[in-house]
Design a protein that fits this description.
Layout: E1 3-9, H1 17-27, E2 32-38, H2 44-50, E3 56-61, E4 75-76, H3 78-83, E5 88-92, E6 95-99, H4 102-113, E7 122-126, H5 130-141, E8 146-151, H6 154-167, E9 171-176, E10 188-191, E11 218-221, H7 230-237, E12 241-243, H8 246-261, H9 267-278
Parallel strand pairs: 1-2, 1-3, 4-6, 7-8, 7-10, 8-9, 10-11, 11-12
Antiparallel strand pairs: 3-5, 5-6
Helix pairs in contact: 1-8, 1-9, 4-5, 4-8, 8-9
């Protein structure tokens, strides 16, 4: 019987997860098919129930469902519970387990691709959704000394900052986009919004961090399509170091693959296919 796994989100036209996940199954000769499941919010509960079937390995979860999906699952692993977002579901004989591989995927990309040491660094996160939650907790667990979270809706940023402060040792504060000006001297800037995403609502957009872009700062954009977003292009122009979102995407996907299969994922194959899919 061919196993099935897929990605749950809405919309899903931008996703390249099917390409590199299928390549991993094929490389290891695992009889599985990775599918795309565009799921509007009103169909989420039914989609989750379908994952209990015998042929289902589980799913990846992307916007806008990473938080809404949690009450529909049978168990939430501690990392996902702390973050408050699920991006991976594992089916164990009809029992659905929620995990989060985004935080580890992001910090691994920082370490391996940017050679960025997180300990005692100051970081600014733009955004307060599911991805921002994973990045914030990941950075706090890895030892940042100060974390500033800003969002178009300041209340969401303040709520996330409070959650991180209560669970970790990082000094954390939240605010609105107008508060970015007070973040001079940060070592790391992470865009966790969809600004700059091809096909998104604001493909030419740049978060209002222009005044912070300078030599010595690492600028990360979780948007991976295009590979060089408007933010990264400007940051590079100003002399800052840059890191795109493709590494986080592949590393979080590889961790999910290991949850589903108990096999070591062929990360080099996954990375190569992800890059080709973008081109």
């Amino acid at each position: 019987m061919t196993s099935r796994v897929g990605i749950i989100g809405y919309p899903l036209g931008h996703s390249i997860s099917p390409a590199f996940q299928q390549a991993a199954f094929d490389e290891l000769e695992i009889d599985a098919r990775y599918e795309t499941w565009a799921t509007p919010p009103e169909e989420l509960a039914a989609r989750v129930e379908s994952l209990r079937a015998e042929d289902m390995l589980g799913a990846n979860v992307t916007v806008p469902h990473k938080q809404a999906i949690m009450p529909l699952l049978d168990e939430i692993l501690p990392v996902a519970d702390s973050i408050g977002a699920v991006n991976t579901i594992i089916n164990r004989e009809g029992f659905l387990i929620g995990a989060n591989t985004d935080a580890a995927g992001f910090t691994r990309s920082l370490e391996q691709e940017a050679r960025f040491a997180t300990v005692r660094k100051r970081a600014l996160i733009v955004g307060a959704g599911g991805a921002a939650r994973a990045v914030a907790f990941g950075l706090a667990w890895e030892g940042v000394s100060e974390l500033v979270i800003v969002n178009r809706t300041p209340e969401r940023a303040s709520e996330l900052a409070r959650d991180v402060s209560e669970a970790t040792a990082a000094e954390t504060r939240g605010g609105g986009l107008d508060d970015i000006g007070g973040s001079d001297g940060v070592d790391l800037i992470v865009n966790c919004t969809s600004m700059g995403m091809a096909g998104g609502p604001d493909p030419e957009g740049i978060p209002p961090v222009e005044g912070l872009l300078k030599r010595g700062v690492l600028v990360c954009d979780l948007v991976y399509n295009p590979q060089q977003t408007p933010l990264l292009a400007l940051a590079r122009e100003r002399g800052a170091r840059v890191l795109g979102g493709i590494g986080m995407l592949v590393y979080q996907g590889a961790a999910a693959f290991e949850f589903w299969t108990d096999r070591e994922p062929p990360e080099d194959i996954m990375y190569s296919v992800a890059l080709k899919a973008l081109m």
